[in-house]
Amino acid sequence: MFDGYDSCSEDTSSSSSSDESEEEVAPLPSSLPIIKNNGQVYTYPDGKSGMATCEMCGMVGVRDAFYSKTKRFCSVSCSRSYSSNSKKASILARLQGKPPTKKAKVLQKQPLVAKLAAYAQYQATLQNQVKTKTAAVPVEGFSWGNYITSNNLTAAPVTCFKHAPMGTCWGDISEGVRVEVPNTDCSLPTKVFWIAGIVKLAGYNALLRYEGFENDSSVDFWCNVCGSDIHPVGWCAASGKPLVPPRTIQHKYTNWKAFLVKRLTGAKTLPPDFSQKVSESMQYPFKPSMRVEVVDKTHLCRTRVAVVDSVIGGRLRLVYEESEDKTDDFWCHMYSPLIHHIGWSRSIGHRFKRSDITKKQDGHYDAPPHLFAKVKEVDPSGEWFKEGMKLEAIDPLNLSAICVATIRKVLADGYLMIGIDGSEAADGSDWFCYHATSPSIFPVGFCEINAIELTPPRGYAKLPFKWFDYLRETDSIAAPVKLFNKEVPNHGFHIRMKLEAVDLMEPRLVCVATVTRIIHRLLRIHFDGWEEEYDQWVDCESPDLYPVGWCQLTGYQLQPPAPQTARDSQSSSSKQKKKAKSQQYKGHKKMTSLQLKEELLDGEEYNFLQGASDQESNGSASYYIKQEP
């Protein structure tokens, strides 16, 4: 039974029946049951009682329950307020030399009514701690609800995204949970509510069905659970809002109170402080005008100073400090490994582009170091990464590919500068920085073990590529397996789950996406409607992945699946532009179409050391290879 569900209190004296059984009756003309905020349930079996609308606040209710002889007001306070307004209107009319007409009274009353309505809404907000401040951003022609329902799709649960709002406090919100939502199947002039149950969850979105419809899905609708129009059961009682059954089923039962009591006994609802938790989880520490160090999108090997221009859902639009017209920008999440506090580059020995601006601009200030994502501490005092060691890494300029790579420089605090073999710039301007614990770098043999196609160095003639031969030809050693991050969290993702994902090659875009492959903690993200060559390898804890409904919740624009015409155009353009990779970390720079093997070894044990005990390269680093006969 719901705690505090006052609208179904057993102590009410105006219940038409104490029997909790469901009872069907014939259609009743002009009769509409109303569950008011005092817990009383009114029905009209004779069809004579009628309805009334308060002339002061607009509340709809039973005429016999209204105050004054003429039954014009729902409460004593409304009656007194109306009387006070009438006097003010009369005085104003006399000052103007005119008798106070009825029309004049109404006109004088309207502004105060609006204020009282706003105040009532404010009071309701206070009773529920705080409401969410977000609004839906519709995408023309695309609806997550229709997309999921029509294709019978499944979305990744909110708990998979610890960095997203409510990701760590979602609780046991699931199918069957009851909520109070606006009743859209109603012809009353005022906003009324009814109870609905969650039929299906898809990220933040829930498919709801009004109580009383049983197995009838004709009026089902989708709603964002974290939106401002969804409340725990009992909210209407606390806020003075009426519960009105949908018009389609209003004559189905004679005793709606007994029906609700029976239906809600033992059921679950949202926590009473749910809206407060939503609001708190959407408070972001980064503010406009904060200065940070961020990767230079034109030269990945260095960082630059940028200023936070805006914050949306934890995503930052950063404008490089030297951009006079503020068009040279970069998007990333506040927990992205690409941004750091001012002074970070100098502290670890990373290349940094000095700004021509000699002093901070007015209003700009350095973001506090504690706001940035923390990396795990490492101990480089023992066996550690060395320059020249080989490994496999996700190419930041072609995120659909895992490539043969080399450690080019070892920085402080566990950071490494890495280059992609066969496509490095002569000046090293396309080296990129990964931390030693990064889930985007892998030991030699990772791709072969997990049936992933490894991208060999550009121009390498001996195909198929064999690590054993390549290490011998280049007189190199593989980075020790034990130095890599082998932790695999219980992330909760499954193949074919839907989500919203950043296109990291155009990081201002958040798109409709699907998980198509899972290798331990590594996810293969496919952008719906696009070719596989635009897929991206992303870590399961990446801050660039979001639940379905995140864009609607935060007010960010969602990119729908690409239409067929756009796919054909993009595919043609891609074939014409297969040239050397650009150094700019932005835009679709896919170079090849990755053809994955048909065998998916998703359940294979994550054991980098398989067969490594007797494989040594120059006696220093163990790695996995298949021994040639």
Automatic annotation (TrEMBL):
Ranges of compositional bias, category Basic residues: 575-591
Keywords of this entry: Chromatin regulator, Metal-binding, Nucleus, Repeat, Transcription, Transcription regulation, Zinc, Zinc-finger
Any one cellular-component term (Gene Ontology): nucleus
- Residue spans of the MBT repeats: 142-246, 254-350, 352-457, 465-561
Which residues are in the FCS-type domain? 45-80
User: Signal peptide span per the entry?
Assistant: none
| GO BP term (any one) | chromatin organization
Q: Which InterPro entries match?
A: Mbt, PcG_chromatin_remod_factors, Znf_FCS, Znf_FCS_sf
SUPFAM superfamilies in alphabetical order? Tudor/PWWP/MBT
Return the annotated region ranges for Disordered. Answer: 1-31, 561-593, 607-629
An example molecular function term from Gene Ontology annotations: zinc ion binding
Composition-biased stretches, type Polar residues, lie in: 610-621
Primary location class = nucleus
Q: Where in the cell is it found?
A: Nucleus
Where are the annotated coiled coils located? none
Locate the compositionally biased regions of type Low complexity.
1-18
Q: What is this protein called in UniProt?
A: Mbt domain containing 1
